[in-house]
Design goal:
Elements lengths: L4 E11 L7 E6 L20 E2 L5 E2 L1 E4 H9 L2 H7 L2 E5 L7 H13 L3 E6 L5 H7 L5 E5 L5 H8 L4 H16 L8 E7 L7 H13 L3 E8 L4 H8 L13 H10 L5 E3 L2
Parallel strand pairs: 2-6, 6-7, 7-8, 8-9, 9-10, 10-11
Antiparallel strand pairs: 1-2, 1-5, 3-4
Helix pairs in contact: 1-3
Length: 262
């Protein structure tokens, strides 16, 4: 079987925000969603791209070359209970590459995590389940119309996949519960009112494998990047000081799950 290739946006080492311990995070290029507040618009399009000044965006790599880079820091993973995290873009759009990479990491005893919007065919999710130790699952807006308006994709597919992951994690005796962290971007005036927060808490409460909710306040990282790509961008109101802490406090009153700023 030929070695899989994919366009990798970047590889970040020594991350402590994308799963437990010290981690290497591999970011893929290409995403089916178009979130209006996206902080990394350079990751949206598929294939190798270019900024307006000609600087390349992304690089085609083989799964072996990525795995070799990841394994250089295995001692740090072992010492900190860290590992490999796949992110995007959307990793579920390159399943063959990602599964080859995850399988290689697992064969070396490396903990694996996947950050995802959850938007994919269920058949794709089922292929990932045995190879993912931790899911960092994005929950953006729990309203069908708003989700479609602000991300360009329906919510139902995402929630169905989340429930599939939760069921598998709850039944997997090798790991037990606690294998899902919900990651919630908070965009002032779009998805941070009491109705939205109650829906997040209710969802977390009904899923036995969700152990943490990560509150991620809006940061306008995407504006300059979008301009450099020649794209239009949405600029949300900047959160006030202490905004994230207030959201954490409000959610903590609605759920017994751990709520934190990552």
């Amino acid at each position: 079987m030929p070695m899989q290739k994919a366009v990798v946006l970047k590889i970040d080492k020594f991350s402590t925000r994308d799963g437990p311990g010290i981690r290497t995070v591999v970011f893929f290029r290409g995403c089916p969603l178009r979130c209006v507040w996206c902080h990394s618009p350079e990751s949206q399009d598929f294939g190798v791209g270019r900024y307006l000044d000609g600087t390349p965006v992304g690089k085609e790599m083989t799964s072996k070359s990525v795995l070799d880079e990841v394994l250089k820091d295995k001692d740090f993973y072992d010492a900190s209970s860290g590992g490999l995290t796949l992110s995007g873009g959307e990793v579920l759009t390159v399943p063959d590459f990602a599964l080859e990479l995850l399988s290689g990491a697992k064969s070396h005893g490396v903990h694996t995590a996947v950050e995802t919007s959850g938007y994919a065919a269920k058949s794709v999710i089922l292929r990932f389940l045995p190879l993912v130790d931790l899911w960092l699952f994005d929950i953006k807006i729990l309203d069908e119309k708003k989700h479609l308006d602000y991300t360009g994709k329906p919510l139902g597919v995402i929630l169905d996949n989340l429930k599939t992951i939760d069921k598998f994690a709850a039944e997997d005796n090798a790991y037990g519960g606690g294998r899902i962290f919900l990651r919630c971007p908070m965009i002032p005036t779009l998805n941070d009112d009491d109705v939205c927060l109650h829906k997040i808490a209710d969802l977390a409460n009904m899923l036995s494998s969700v152990s943490e909710i990560h509150v991620e306040p809006y940061i306008p990282f995407g504006i300059e990047k979008a301009a450099a790509l020649g794209k239009a961008s949405y600029e949300a109101a900047m959160p006030e000081r202490g905004y994230g802490e207030k959201i954490v406090e409000r959610l903590s009153q609605l759920t017994k799950k751990r709520v934190l700023l990552p």
